[in-house]
Amino acid sequence: MLTIFLSVLVLSSTHQIKKARDNVRKFPDEFIFGAATASYQIEGAWDEDGKSENIWDRLTHADPCSITDCSNGDIADDSYHLYKRDVEMMRELGLDFYRFSLSWSRILPTSFPDKINEAGVQYYNNLIDEMLKYNIEPMVTLYHWDLPQKLQDMGGWTNPYIVDWFADYARVAFEMFGDRVKYWITMNEPREICYQGYGANTKAPRLNIKGTAEYMCAKNLLMAHAKAYHIYNEEYRFSQGGIIGITLSANWYYSETEADIEAAEEAVQFEWGQYANPIFSEKGDFPPVMKEKIAAKSAAQGFARSRLPEFTPEEVEYVRGSADFFGINHYSSYIVYRNESMATYHEVPSYYDDLNAVIYQSSEWEHGASDFLKVVPEGFYKLLTDIKQKYNNPPIYITENGYSTYGGLVDDDRIAYYRKYMDAMLDAIDEGCDIRGYAAWSLLDNFEWMEGYLERFGLYEVDYESPERTRTPRKSAFVYKQIVRTRELDWHYEPDTDVMTIDEGY
Ligand code: BGC
């Protein structure tokens, strides 16, 4: 604990010295800036114009107070009706791109392509066209957690048929929007989908079936991702000319002491290597350490086979290389240790028992409103350089990074977070990491999953008391705008206005 803590302190003070010397830092010429959101978190209109129920509608309606403030996304930011205001905000910020997700059950109310909901398609057409009018590139996530409930009733991501269900849905999206969308992301954060939704109870569908369901989900999700990639690659890439990748949640894992270095690396392999290794490594497949550990534990526990499903050699090849870029959502870092007490620490069987380590965060780290959001910018640098080294320097888009508060327009702590994390990212770029773009999470406050509307991530504050869901720029919006406009990180810039305008050209 002490070793890691001291090394973090030493490293961050070298960063301080550098910052003091280097007040204004330039972003590369081709670098693009954006902001991100997700369908369930902002759209509302949960049952309007033919949309059917998804797993978040079901969870929030069946068990309202499983959400901290007993709220739901029925109306959320009402972006279904207020999308023009959202685009206006993108123009105010001068964004190059905007990352949003499609609601599967809005486009395909039966979950399948037998019936395409025209009103749902129209909504996304309107949004995309409005953005393109002002040269704002759409970056579209196909799946950001809102699975049609019907598919969940049939096992959701644990049912291998989902590979086809997802591929059929992806094809409809390419067909409908691919003439104008040039950046596609298949999945947002597989770890959160599989571990939190199936192996724990911290995201819908809250199955909490430990040590099995999350691994079945992982294999099916990777196959579904790969199938969508191959469809795009073979049927649409030539005529539509876009790129397609996947977004992983990737945190950094420090070892508590030197003795825990192996445990920390294994945590990396379990937490995001599980999804990165099959796609981005030279050999493909789940990380060897996961395969070995889970097979050994499963045998000792009396299972007939490893709880981690195997990929056949053909499947390994099918998934390997199935992304044009590595999308990264990064918020924070963790500390890892392993000792004798592990044997009784975790439930058996479970994912964390398989990893056989404890992951935690230092209570001394500065933090935002969200429990997990500790401010450790150096971890971002470590993560990015580790990805460069492990996977042959893939093109990277930071598809989410941001900070939570409990609200308020003067958000200096959010501004400090953005500056520190962008500074760490620029250090990684200086090391040769191929980072091509950055999206702030989030354009505006939104439904923060199990935390409802309590934790706020927006550059714009949303007034949930007003029927118009009034959006007001926070101080951080002015600072981000300045970064986007100048393509520079200036530690001393102070906005001299609180009146937001649209600059010429937007
Ligand atoms: C998710 C977002 C979420 C954000 C902040 C990411 O894990 O993709 O949907 O709001 O983190 O918690």
TrEMBL record:
One of its GO terms (molecular function) is beta-glucosidase activity. Residues 1-20 form the signal peptide. Coiled coil: none annotated. Gene3D superfamilies: Glycosidases. Keywords: Glycoprotein, Glycosidase, Hydrolase, Signal. It comes from the Eukaryota. The keyword Transmembrane helix does not apply. PROSITE patterns: GLYCOSYL_HYDROL_F1_2. Pfam families: Glyco_hydro_1. One of its GO terms (biological process) is carbohydrate metabolic process. InterPro entries: GH (IPR017853), GH_1_N_CS (IPR033132), Glyco_hydro_1 (IPR001360). PANTHER family: GLYCOSYL HYDROLASE (PTHR10353), LP05116P (PTHR10353:SF36). Homodimer. Belongs to the glycosyl hydrolase 1 family. This is Myrosinase 1. It comes from Parnassius mnemosyne (clouded apollo). The lineage of its organism: Eukaryota, Metazoa, Ecdysozoa, Arthropoda, Hexapoda.
